[in-house]
UniProtKB/TrEMBL annotation:
GO terms for cellular component: brush border; cell cortex; microvillus; myosin complex; plasma membrane. It comes from Poecilia latipinna. CDD domains: IQCD, MYSc_Myo1. The keyword Repeat applies. Keywords: Actin-binding, ATP-binding, Calmodulin-binding, Isopeptide bond, Motor protein, Myosin, Nucleotide-binding, Phosphoprotein, Repeat, Ubl conjugation. Residues 575-597 are annotated as: Actin-binding. It is found in: Cytoplasm, Cell cortex. Motor protein that may participate in process critical to neuronal development and function such as cell migration, neurite outgrowth and vesicular transport. The lineage of its organism: Eukaryota, Metazoa, Chordata, Craniata, Vertebrata. GO terms for molecular function: actin filament binding; ATP binding; calmodulin binding; microfilament motor activity. The keyword Heme does not apply. Belongs to the TRAFAC class myosin-kinesin ATPase superfamily. Myosin family. This is Unconventional myosin-Ib. Residues 12-698 form the Myosin motor domain. ATP binds at residues 105-112.
Length: 1079
């Protein structure tokens, strides 16, 4: 649920002075002070906001605050300027009423700040969007530009507006800003040439000198040092809390955003620089022979630079400072200017240059921010005009400013006090009149067309003859003397004759806000606002687009001999327009009050505040407010606004509006004392009643919105439903058609199927019958044939013998066998025992016979083959056979020996004379003679030996000499050991204890190893008296060398050892033979 808040929640003092009890001046001030001390600077009097300047920044202007006050009722939250801004904006947006925000108060009371707060609030809450944001930004950024050129430090305010500003912000029907129009009122231009003590010239001069980059300054022919320029007061050149350099950048940036072109900005700065230069031009007197005083420019350098800046001809300007041309009746008269007049001319030019530049800036800004669309606009005007001023030395400007404030007070009185009271009377409400001071008399004293001060000043200015400020004062003295608010020493009113606080050249006006003493000096001149025509013409001639625009009257083609309207006249006229403009709008008041004179925070000067409260008529304001009704509204709009709250008035009330409102109020049961029905309006006493109505209305609007939403949603759903239904019918019809089509096709298909099955069945039935008929016919034939056969066999049986079948069978078998053998004979393979071919068998029942015949044939051809062998050849083959039995698949050397014929005697010893002795020593027949390697037991190296084998002995002899080395009887031989590999190593192992065994076993190597061992074995197996020789084939065997047993180990040699067998003695127990791997 939404939390309801009220102004009354956590209130410090009283938030709305209307609720103050008791109401006295003291309690009023007490309340303000209490709130001020608690940082509550805003207090209401009804819908008027009183604002006390805190002179320090308070955290009450954050975006959160903006959100808090947005779309809330005025009295719902604690008093704030945002509440007023929100009220004004909503009333503009929702009720289509043009608004104006009137901000009044003394100089330094916070008017300008307040106007900026209002603008920023409105900018924050109104519409958003790229275009809208641009407009907002431009509107907001016009402030820094105007402040730089139109504000200055005064003793009252460090950022005092020295011009009046009224800005109309235009909105479209949605409340989005479209643009704006700024009007400016009378810039205090005298400040350009002279500033009171403790004050400064306009900010822009200081900002330019401290903030512009060096090259800009160089272009403008300026120096940073303020002291170089006569027009800049030095005693307060820098203001604490004001960063001129940073502000300069802000201003340039703002100008860019507002839409100033680069060259425009440059022109503006050139003019500012020119004003500074102008101030430095000094004159010296020069007497002429004709006795006339003349002046000369002291140092022409500044003039030269200024002319360069403005593009004017130096001589033209120089002449304009020395002569004055007066045109009268087609005659031109030139008079020389004395030094004082020259200075006057110089300052007049400076003031005019600057003030026209300022007006141009406003026009230029207006061009940028003006609303584009031509539709009707709603307008919110914000008026921030210079405040009431009382200085030590008050001149024409203060007079004008204070006049303007009088007018504003007048409008306040008109609208809040008089208007309100008169309205009560008009409406016939019982009313006791409340006394208040009406300042209309003061306004009349100043602006009366016949004898007002401004009228007389104009009269003086236009009068022929010598006119001085004194003559003007004389005139005032005669005409206004009797006025109760006018005082002067020389007035006929003798009561002031002895008033020493009133000097002779002054007059005093008792303003609504206090007495102000004006010095008449300068009134006439300032009102005349004369610029010698020579000067304006010189300016017009300048080769500078902006200057030319600023001095249109200098155009010789448009010489106008009529005097321009005086400053006072212009101001009065523009104030008049402003007032009628404000009166046409719904006013919202912010009354700014200064809590102290020292610009100090936390200081509340009771008497100062009291003074302001008095002259602002705040007490009267409260009294009128309390006596009357908080709110009023004409019957028609009231009924229109609240008619939805009652069944009888909603939606239309047929009768008169007043009756409608009465019905409405009765229905709502609002207590009768809370309102009264008057002639044309209903008056509501308490804001709370209004809130009650507003709240009800808001709820009701929500309900109505819900109702509209409901009906709309219903309509939307219904139309959607109808559409769906329509579509559903279409879809359904299409679907049905489709489904029927499918069904029909299915039935058709089924029918065809049934049909075809039936036809098939009928056809098969017919076929079966036909087949049966046919079979019957065939059966008949068969039966007939069998029958005939039986008949025949029965007839012929007596002609066949009983065992004819067996005979025929045997005969057939014989024929087949005969044919098989004959065929085999013709296809027999060759007689070679190794031929493996054999013809295929013709009949499977001959399988066994066929294989057997093959075996027999093979045996037979082997026998045939063998029978062709001689005895020697037979012995050789037997030997080979034995070798095969011994070594096949046991030693890798064997396959290579198969092809070698076993020659036996490789040396033919008996024929070799060298071995004569040896052959004689061996008496037996030599079965084998060969050269072997005897392996040295010590190192494994071999030495050649003759190896002879007889039936009984093995003989080893020296190869060269044939000398017998060893003769071992075969009976002493125990076994032969050899490896499984391709080497030719073999060891002859001797029987232990035999005679030959003394020297140890023999380790030999031979290329004919297989033959040697086969022969040794053969001899053993043939001799009946000896046991067979053991042959041991393994890669590791022991050999007895004298006493030691040495292990001979065969290893696979790596290929790097080459293809030869090598034997190495590894240690005294191991002899390693490395054998190349057989490929
Ligand atoms: N609401 C505020 N919060 C903080 N400081 C403020 C406020 N209003 C005014 N001031 C201070 O007072 C100074 C004068 O205010 P300003 O609006 O320029 O006065 P005025 O326009 O009435 O002459 C400002 O420069 C600012 O320092
Ligand atoms: Mg101001």
């Amino acid at each position: 649920m939404e939390v309801k808040t009220s102004l009354l929640d956590n209130m410090i003092g009283v938030g709305d002075m209307v609720l103050l009890e008791p109401l006295t001046e003291d309690s009023f001030l007490e309340n303000l002070k209490k709130r001020f001390d608690h940082n509550e600077i805003y207090t209401y009097i009804g819908s008027v906001v009183i604002s006390l300047n805190p002179y320090r920044s308070l955290p009450i202007y954050t975006p959160d605050k903006v959100e808090e006050y947005r779309n809330r009722n005025f009295y719902e939250l604690s008093p704030h300027i945002y509440a007023l801004a929100d009220e004004a904006y909503r009333s503009l947006r929702d009720q289509d009423k043009d608004q104006c925000i009137l901000i009044t108060g003394e100089s330094g009371a916070g008017k300008t700040e307040a106007s900026k707060l209002v603008m920023s609030y409105v900018a924050a809450v109104c519409g958003k969007g790229q275009e809208v944001n641009k407009v907002k930004e431009q509107l907001l950024q016009s402030n820094p530009v105007l402040e730089a050129f139109g504000n200055a430090k005064t003793v009252r305010n460090d950022n005092s507006s020295r011009f009046g500003k009224y800005m109309d912000i235009e909105f479209d029907f949605k409340g989005d800003p479209l643009g704006g129009v700024i009007s400016n009122y009378l810039l205090e231009k005298s400040r350009v040439v002279k500033q009171p003590r403790g004050e400064r010239n306009f900010h822009i001069f200081y900002q330019l000198l401290s903030g512009a980059p060096d090259d800009t300054l160089k272009k403008l022919k300026l120096e940073r040092d303020f002291s170089k320029y006569n027009y800049l007061s030095l005693d307060s050149a820098t203001v604490s809390g004001l960063d001129d350099a940073a502000n300069f950048r802000t201003v340039r940036n703002a100008m860019q955003i507002v839409g100033f072109m680069e060259d425009e900005m440059q022109s503006v700065l050139e003019l500012v620089a020119a004003v500074l230069k102008l101030g430095n031009i000094e004159f010296k007197p020069e007497s002429r022979c004709n006795g006339m005083d003349e002046s000369r420019i002291k140092d022409k350098n500044d003039l030269k630079e200024m002319c360069e800046l403005l593009g004017t001809e130096q001589s033209v300007l120089e002449r304009a400072f020395s002569y004055r041309t007066v045109e009268a009746k087609m005659e031109k008269v030139s008079t020389t200017l004395n030094v004082a007049q020259a200075y006057y001319a110089r300052d007049a030019l400076a003031k005019n240059l600057y003030s026209r530049l300022f007006s141009w800036l406003v026009t230029r800004i207006n061009e940028s921010i003006k609303a584009q669309a031509k539709t009707r606009h709603k307008v919110m005007g914000v008026l921030d005009i210079y405040g009431f001023e009382i200085f030590e030395d008050n001149s024409f400007e203060q007079f004008i400013i204070n006049y303007c404030n009088e007018k504003l007070q007048q409008i306040f009185i008109e609208l809040t006090l008089r208007e309100e009271q008169e309205e009560y009377i008009r409406e016939g409400i019982e009313w006791t009149n409340i006394e208040y001071f009406n300042n209309a008399v003061i306004c009349d004293l100043i602006e009366n067309n016949q004898n007002g001060i401004l009228a007389m000043l104009d009269e003086e200015c236009l009068r022929p003859g010598t006119v001085t400020d004194e003559t003007f004062l004389d005139k005032l003295n005669t005409i206004c003397a009797d006025h109760q608010h006018f005082e002067s020493r020389l007035s006929k009113n003798s009561k002031f004759l002895n008033d020493h606080s009133l000097p002779h050249n002054c007059f005093r006006i008792q303003h609504y806000a206090g007495k102000v003493l004006y010095r008449v000096e300068g009134f006439v001149d300032k009102n005349n606002d004369l610029l010698y025509r020579d000067l304006s013409q010189a300016m017009y001639k300048a080769n500078h687009s902006l200057i030319k625009q600023l001095f249109p009257e200098g155009n010789p083609a448009k010489v106008n001999l009529k005097r321009p309207p005086t400053a006072g006249f212009q101001f009065k006229a523009s104030v008049g327009t402003l007032m009628s403009n404000l009166q046409s709008k719904n006013p919202n008041y912010i009354r700014c009050i200064k809590p102290n004179d020292k610009k100090a925070s936390h200081v509340f000067n009771g008497s100062l505040v009291c003074h302001q409260a008095r002259y602002l008529g705040l007490m009267e304001n409260v009294r009128v407010r309390r006596a009357g009704y908080a709110f009023r509204q004409a019957y028609e709009p009231c009924l229109e606004r609240y008619k939805m709250l009652c069944k009888n008035t909603w939606p239309h009330w047929k009768g008169r509006a007043r009756q409608g409102v009465e019905v409405l109020m009765t229905d709502l049961q609002v207590p009768a004392e809370e309102f009264s029905y008057c002639r044309s309006k209903i008056f509501i006493r308490n804001p709370r009643t209004l809130f009650f109505l507003e709240e009800k209305r808001k709820q009701c609007l929500e309900d109505l919105a819900t109702l509209i939403q409901k009906i709309y949603k219903g309509w939307k759903c219904r139309s959607h439903f109808l559409l769906l239904k329509k579509s559903q019918v279409v879809v359904a019809s299409w679907y049905r058609r489709y489904a029927q089509q499918k069904k029909y096709q299915k039935i058709k298909h089924a029918t065809t199927m049934v049909q075809s099955y039936t036809r098939g069945w009928q056809a098969r039935k017919l076929l079966r019958e036909l087949k049966y008929q046919k079979k019957c016919e065939e059966a008949v034939t068969t039966i007939a044939a069998f029958w005939h056969g039986t008949q025949v066999r029965r007839e012929y049986r007596k002609f066949f013998r009983a065992n004819a079948g067996k005979k025929i069978y045997n005969f057939t078998i014989q024929r087949i066998m005969q044919k098989y053998f004959l065929g085999l004979k013709s296809k027999l393979p060759s007689m070679s025992p190794i031929d493996k071919t054999w013809p295929a068998r013709p009949y499977s029942f001959l399988d066994g016979v066929h294989a057997e015949l093959r075996r027999i044939f093979h045996l037979w051809r082997c026998k045939k083959y063998r029978s062709r062998f001689t005895e020697e050849k037979k012995a050789v083959y037997e030997e080979k056979l034995e070798a095969s039995e011994l070594f096949k698949d046991k030693k890798a050397l064997y396959p290579s020996s198969v092809r070698q014929p076993f020659k036996g005697d490789y040396l033919e010893i008996s024929k070799n004379p060298k071995y004569q002795k040896l052959s004689s020593a061996v008496d037996e027949k030599i079965l084998l003679a060969d050269v072997v390697n005897k392996i040295n037991r010590a190192n494994g190296k071999g030495s050649s030996r003759l190896f002879l084998l007889t039936k009984k002995n093995v003989v080893l002899a020296d190869q060269k000499t044939g000398q017998l080395k060893a003769n071992v009887p075969l009976t002493d031989l125990a076994s032969v050991s050899t490896s499984t590999q391709t080497d030719g190593f073999f060891a002859l192992k001797l029987k232990e204890g035999s005679a030959s065994a003394v020297k140890g076993d023999f380790l030999l190597s031979s290329d004919h190893l297989i033959e040697i061992i086969t022969k040794l074995h053969r001899i053993g197996s043939m001799a009946a008296d000896r046991e067979k020789l053991n042959i041991d084939i393994s890669d590791e065997f022991l050999v007895q060398f004298k006493q030691d047993k040495v292990c001979v180990k065969f290893i696979q040699g790596s290929p790097k050892n080459g293809n030869s067998v090598s034997c190495k003695r590894k240690n005294n127990r191991l002899l390693e033979v490395s054998v190349p791997a057989s490929s």
